[in-house]
Amino acid sequence: MQKIYYSIGEVAAILGENVSLVRFWSDSFPKFIHPVRNAKGNRIFSAEDVETFRQIHFLVRTGLTLEGVARKLRDDRASVARDLKILDSLKEIRARLAEVRDSMEQ
């Protein structure tokens, strides 16, 4: 079951990045990320926001600038989502192959 809202720390853990970077990206991409504030005033993010963070993380890792990331999300978000899904599938296949290799070594 997927959570409704994620704390900034949970988003940072999902991405493997610092909380400060998540906060920076949240402030840098207000057209794409829409945090809600809880009763304490902390930012909480929807599952859609988390997916957007994953896309930003992916695009930054490919070498795009923040301006380039914003342009790509605005103009061709479907291909970014597709590429990220392919990458996730490849990581899953790699993990399964590593499990098979490890079981064969025993």
What are the main properties of this structure?
three-stranded antiparallel sheet; 4 helices; mainly alpha; Multidrug-efflux Transporter Regulator, Chain: A, Domain 2; 106 residues
Sequence-ordered SSE layout with sheet pairings:
Layout: E1 5-7, H1 8-15, H2 19-28, E2 36-37, E3 43-46, H3 47-61, H4 66-105
Helix pairs in contact: 1-2, 3-4
Describe the protein in words:
Strand 2 and strand 3 (about 45) form a beta hairpin. The chain has a 3-stranded antiparallel β-sheet. By secondary structure, it is mainly alpha-helical. The protein has 4 helices and 3 strands; from the N terminus they run E-H-H-E-E-H-H. The chain has one domain: Multidrug-efflux Transporter Regulator, Chain: A, Domain 2 (Orthogonal Bundle). It starts with a strand and ends with a helix. Helix 1 crosses helix 2 (about 20-30) and helix 3 (about 45-60) crosses helix 4 (about 65-105). The model has no long low-confidence stretch (mean pLDDT about 95). The chain has helices at about 10-15, 20-30, 45-60, 65-105, and strands spanning about 5, 35, 45. The longest helix has about 40 residues, at about 65-105.
Largest sheet: 3 strands, antiparallel
Classify the helix fraction into a percent range.
55-70%
- Give the DSSP E fraction (strand runs of 2 or more residues): 5-15%
Count of strand segments: 3
Regions with little confidence, pLDDT below 50 for 5+ residues: none
Number of helices: 4
Widest sheet: strand order?
1-3-2
End-to-end CA span: 35 Å
Please tell me how large the radius of gyration is. 16 Å
